[in-house]
Amino acid sequence: MTRMPIRLAAALLLTTGVARGETVEVRMLNRGEQGSMVFEPDYVELAPGDTLRFRVGSRSHNAASIDTMAPTGATPFKGRIDEEIAVTFEHAGFYGIKCSPHLGMGMVMLVKVGEAAAPDGLVDPALPARARKRFEDIMGRAGLDAAPQ
Ligand SMILES: [Cu+2]
Question: In sequence order, which residues have a C-beta less than 8 Å from that of residue 116 and are 6 or more positions away?
């Protein structure tokens, strides 16, 4: 998994020609279709090697891994506030992503990479209530079983 500014990532792709996966853009927003403080889209299915590119839709957000919601071997990442990072996902499984300052307001998203079944207890019970609620909403919309605790 890589973590670098967009401009640098683009430059590397141009110079090395290693682009092999798809890139999906996610916007960090104060308000979106699913309410306030959201990633949009908040659920993405990727193939291993695909990249999420986080764009500033509204200011004062970031994108960071939730380290208790990632497959074994995944590399943690954390963008700075208003930093547009590109993250490539190599390991199949489910990844929780948060906005650090707005986790308590439920600003999270879920990523499925490759062929994977949502594990029991996917949603970390230690997360704030509004973050757990949004994960459950996402899983309901995505047709994934809500993980029983
Ligand atoms: Cu935020």
Answer: 71, 92, 93, 94
Q: How close is the Cα of 54 to the center of ligand 1, in Å?
A: 12
Distance 38 CA to ligand 1 centre (A): 7
Beta strands in 18-118 (DSSP E): 23-32, 35-40, 43-46, 50-56, 64-65, 85-89, 93-98, 108-113
Residue 133 has phi, psi (to 5 degrees) of -60, -45
Task: Tell me what pLDDT residue 10 has.
Answer: 53
Instruction: Say whether pLDDT at 12 is over 70.
Output: no
User: Which domains, ranges and CATH numbers included, belong to the chain?
Assistant: 4-142 (2.60.40.420)
Left (φ > 0), alpha (ψ -120 to 50) or beta: where does 114 sit? left
Predicted local distance difference test score (pLDDT) of residue 42: 98
